Structures are given as C-alpha cells and as structure tokens.
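Example record for the data management plan.
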Amino acid sequence: MIQLSDEQLNQLGKEALVVIVSSLQDQLLALQSQLDQANAQLSDNNRQIELLTEQIRIMNQRFFGRKSEAAVSEVDGQLSLFDSFNEAEYLKQDSLKEPEITEVVIPSYHRKKAVGKRDADLAGLPARIIEHTLSEEELAARFPDGYKELPEEIYKRLHIIPETFIVDEHHVHVYASRNNDGTILKAPRPKDLFRNSIATPALVASIINGKYTNALPLERQAKAFKTNGIQLSTNTMANWVIKSADEYLSLIYDRLHERIYDSKVIHADETPVKVMRIEHSKIKNGKKTYMWVYRNRPLRGTHPIVLFDWQPSRHSEHPREFLKTFSGTVVTDGYQVYHKLAKERRDLKVAGCWVHARRPFAEFIKSVGQDTAKGSIAQEAYSMITEIMHIDNTFDDLSATDRKKQRQLILSEKVDAYFAWAKQKYSQVTHNSTIGKALAYSINQEDYLRVFLSDGHVPMDNNYAEQAIRPFTIGRKNFVMIESSNGAKASAILYSLVETAKANRINTFEYFNLLLTEIPQHMDDRDLRFIDDLLPWSPRVQKECPSRYKKS
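Corresponding structural encoding:
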C-alpha cells in the first residue's frame, strides 16, 4: 500500500481525489459490515449461552429442587412463590393476603395427646381379651374377710401376626348306596380359582395387593415368602396375576369402562413404560410403550372410576377407540391427539389444563430464585394464572349452572386480559427461551384453556388424571419395565381396579379376595348382572370390604 505525503495530496487533481475517497468509503463499508457480522455472531453466542444456562437451571430444579410448585403470598402487591402447597391445586384461603406472623411459638415435644385418640386409632380392629387375675388362694390370704371386685383397669397394646400360611386341605366326602347299585355321590365343592393349582383367592389377592397397591415387585414378594418357608417362583406368581386379570377381573374392568361414559367430564393422561417382550406385534422388544389413564369427574349419580389402558404407542387411534362412545368433555394436558379427536367429532370437546400453562413459569422462578424473578414476565404470568385459579376455587360449592355464571361474570375479563398480555409479551421475548415457549404454550392452547368458562362441570386443571397415574409411576420405579405385553395388559386392569377401589374407599385386598372368590362361581352364567353387585360402590362391597384408613 502506497502512502502519499501532504504535498503529494495537494498536487493531486479532482478526479484522482474522488477515486481515492470512493475507495476509502468502500473499505469503510466493508469493515463496518465485518464488524456488524462479528457483533451479530457475538450476540447470537451470548443469547445461546443464556438459553443453555436457563435450561441448566430448569433441569437442576427438576432433578434436585422441590417437586411441587410453591404457594403464593402477596409481596409488594405481587403474587409470589415458595409457601408449600400441592402443585395441582392452589390452596383455598379467604384472601390472597397471608396473615402476618407476629410471634413464633415452638410447641413442646411432650404435648398431651388428644383424649380418646388411641381408642380411635385402634377402633375397628379385632381384639383378643387377655385377663390378668389373682388366684383364689392369693385373694383369700390378702382379704381374710372376703373381697369384692371393682371395675377392671383396661389398657390396649397393638399386636401383629406376621404373614401366616395355612394349607386348606379339602376333604370331599363320597357316598354310595348300601345295596351296591353303583350310585356314587360326591359332596359339592366350590369351583377352584385355577385347576390343579395351590392358589387360593386370598393368596392371589395378597400378591396383587402387594404389587399394585404397595408397589412391591414379585421378586421381593418371592423372597419374603421364602423366609417363611414358602417356595413360590416369580413366574408362577406372574402367571396367576395375568390369568386372574384375563379370566376374571377383566369382567369388572369392562363394566367400569361402560359406566365411565355416564360422566360428562373425563380426565386423560399418558405415561411411558418399557415392555421387554411384545407378542404378536412388529414393534421391537424393549420399546417404549404407553400406559394411558382415564378418570371421570364424579358428579351426582356417578361414582369415581379410574381406568388404565396399555397401548404399544402414543397414536390417536388408542384414545379414539377408548372414547368411541363417550359424549362430553375430555380434560387433557394439551397433547395434540386429543385435539385431533375433537375436530373429528361434534359430541366431543377438549379442555386444557391451566396448571400445565402455569408450570413452566413456576419452574423458571424456582430456578433463578424469587428475588431475581421479582418483576419478571414469569412472575407476572404466574401471578395472573394463580389469581384466576384461586378465584375459581371459591366456586367449588356452587352448582354447575351457578359456577358457569360466576366464571363468566368474574373470570372472563381476567382470562381475556391474560391472553392479551401473553400475546403482547411474546413479541418482546426470544421465542426459543423458556419464557418464550411458556407463553407460546398458553397462546396455542387458548381455545382449550377457555373451555372451562362455558361449562360449569369442567375444572381448570387435569389434576385428577395426574393424581391417578402417580401410583403407576411409583411402581414403575421399582419394576423398571414390564416383562411382556400380556403383563402390561394385566397391569392396566389391576391398576384400574386398585385405584377405583381406593377412590371408593374400600380395602383393596379384601376387594380382590371377594372378586376372586365370587367371580369363578359365575363363569358358566349367561346373565352377567351379578357383576353389578361386585362394583366398588355396591352396598355388598361397601359392607364386606370396608377401608380402615383414617386420616391423621
């Protein structure tokens, strides 16, 4: 590059100077363009770093933080997080404002127990009377002039009898005529649960209850049996469980499937589960399959029903088949297959879940901390949604008609304001960020999130389904995967009966024992009306299988 002196520049003509200046301008523009590109690249890198940092915070919160959303209290006129409550439902309270705490009282560890609490805890349990007396000789020595007995001093202790195994040895009496005319008569005997098997209804009911109520895998139960000298392989128990579900308990399941359609609202959800071996299918073994759950919203004239439905995939044909004769509203978490069904049918509506709309904002706030989140879009969104949910909770005791009126009168404007605000804020944030995705979820689900305003039967959330599916997810942590598709289908039936029994407040072991005792006696019946007498809410079941569960 040639550098000209001031004297040489002064001697240059106009045309030469124009060429030089033009060249310099081109160079400056090129440098400015390179600088702009570098700044843009740097900005993209910073934005990418921010997004990754944000995702790391969220993942840390999900894995290591508290699992439930915190309750809301009013701080500086804003609703904030971090007083514990069930994430599924905002605490009902008389107002949004928390009462002021002016004094902290630490209770004594030696508090006096409530009068009668022990008797209440032990009520309903069978009792054995243990007498403590003095011999007549001792009494005569202490009371030479005679004695009289005063009211007894009574105290109670809780005793346990570990698993006790008894062999039911059936002796079937056989009779013949004295004149030897060849007539032989056997005494009647009940039909066996399984032919040529040692299994009894109580034993199989105990195994089912252990796995599907108490989340004890069959391997652990087999070890417990072995310590009592009972040799039962996991394969044997698995066969009993699958056969019981397939031959007997499926009759109850099918009737519950018919009765769940009596409801106007059904909650739906699904969760993955691995199945090691899938028979009669092109699907690869060990593939991720899905356990779907459907739970009604019991209203007048209906009873709580929880139904699981195992399917090899997450495709729309599965809920389409399960809900084919249902007419009403399905409350879901926003999964598109339900929206597809709603577009296919006029008699089916889909309602969205506001807890799912609020959850990403709550996760963001917990990941960055309450102080950092104060005044943020996440905090404002969380506060707006929570206020709407809190007000709706105050309508719980109203009829469906009155609840609809109150929602339209009070909540309609607040819902309109939230969506208008969300659309405005969405244009101001990075769409790929956590807040951008959270706002996009609300905006995309707007039609479904608004359904509750026009139907007093429809709740604002899908908590019924999430609560129903939780026992299965707990059990899945213990057994990791299901051995076969037959086992998966049986698990769907058994989890359905367990959760429906619990929802109807009956003892699950006693219920399975009753079903496995009664149903085999009716297998030759053409009339299946006996099934109605075995549904969890029937007077017979309520009487014979009462739950002794007491809330503390």
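Summary line stored alongside the record: The first strand starts at residue 70 and ends at 75.
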